Amino acid sequence: MIPVSAIQTDNPNRSSLIFIAALLTVFAGVTPSQGRTQQLASSSASAPAAPTPDAGAGVQEDPSLPQLTARNPRYVIQRQDMLVLTFPLTPELNQTVMVEPDGYINLENIGSLHIQGLTVPELVIALKNAYAKILHNPIIDVDLKDFRKPFFTVFGQVRKPGQYELRLDTTVTEAIAVAGGLSSSAKTQILLYRRMPDQRFEVEKVNLKEILRGKNVNEDASVRPGDMIYVPDSAITTFRKYVPYSVDAGTYLTPNPF
Q1: In whole angstroms, what is the distance from residue 179 CA to residue 181 CA?
Q2: Parallel/antiparallel/unpaired status of strands 151-156 and 228-231
Q3: pLDDT under 70 in the chain at which residues?
Q4: Superfamily of domain 151-254
């Protein structure tokens, strides 16, 4: 390092230039990029390390908690459905099968397979597992040739009770309109029966009067395939004694009455 006292010139401006050059010589070994790298390394060393997620850890769902219902559930195979099974690599196994009343289908070279309650993607997996006994990595396509059309049922105090096809997105209010509307003795507290996976029915009360008045319009429940809508002709409190109530779920639960 060059002492400042050693820089003596007659020209003050030249003295300043020589002094600046001496400083540059001292710091010539540290480039700007190296200085920033050292600064970042110092900051990283002083900052606490962020926790890293455990690769093997997953979100554990509590089975006791209510599960979400799929917004667009897949069609579930029913009895009397007609299915076309196509084997692109082994066309001699192509076949059309119908689901028997007991939920089974009869497969070529395999035998019986229970498929009632499966979706089409689940059926494809089941067929591949079954045919893996005689085929190596079987490729199978499944098409629904004929199936039970989605429907809903309206009964009780409506003008045209019965079963109707569910072709479009329909609410409870619209379903009652399809059934001819309410009769003169009908109450406006409607009961919506919805079949659950365990074959019980969840019963939801819909206040049609409030919905028609423009209040709580968002509570006009959407109708799903298999739903039943009951329009009583007596007070809802009279009907409650026949429908068990679940305090935890906040809904009425009853065994399958049909």
Answers
A1: 6
A2: parallel
A3: 1-71, 197-199, 234-258
A4: Outer membrane lipoprotein wza domain like (3.10.560.10)
